[in-house]
From TrEMBL:
SUPFAM superfamilies: Acyl-CoA N-acyltransferases (Nat). Residues 9-66 form the N-acetyltransferase domain. This is N-acetyltransferase domain-containing protein. Pfam families: Acetyltransf_1 (PF00583).
Length: 105
């Protein structure tokens, strides 16, 4: 789905992982980290791509200005191969992720 959104030779930033200890959630830590990334991307005129790994992280990224790419339904990966936790599981449910993009103004 990235190819449908970003042009082949277009530069973009990719946020590989952001994690917060459950005891520290709800304090605005992710938006603080993302602020620096988005400021730089805005100066460069460069979009930012990520895949949210949960509904909660998807909401946080949306508040930071990211938009769903696949209409909000996300993508199911590994169906029949792994469980929702990503561990190998025969006939598993798979793992859902939500591709998102932030566009500079």
């Amino acid at each position: 789905c990235k190819k449908r959104v970003l042009h082949r030779d277009e530069r973009y930033y990719y946020v590989a992982q952001v994690g917060t200890l459950s005891s520290r959630r709800g304090r605005g830590l992710c938006p603080m980290v993302m602020k620096g990334v988005l400021e730089r991307a805005g100066r460069d005129g460069t979009p930012v791509w990520l895949e949210a790994s949960s509904e909660g992280s998807r909401r946080v990224y949306a508040r930071c200005g990211f938009r769903d790419v696949e209409g909000g339904e996300g993508i199911l990966l590994g169906k029949g191969e792994c469980g929702m936790d990503g561990e190998r599981k025969e006939k598993g449910e798979g793992v859902r992720c939500w591709p998102m993009v932030w566009w500079p103004e």
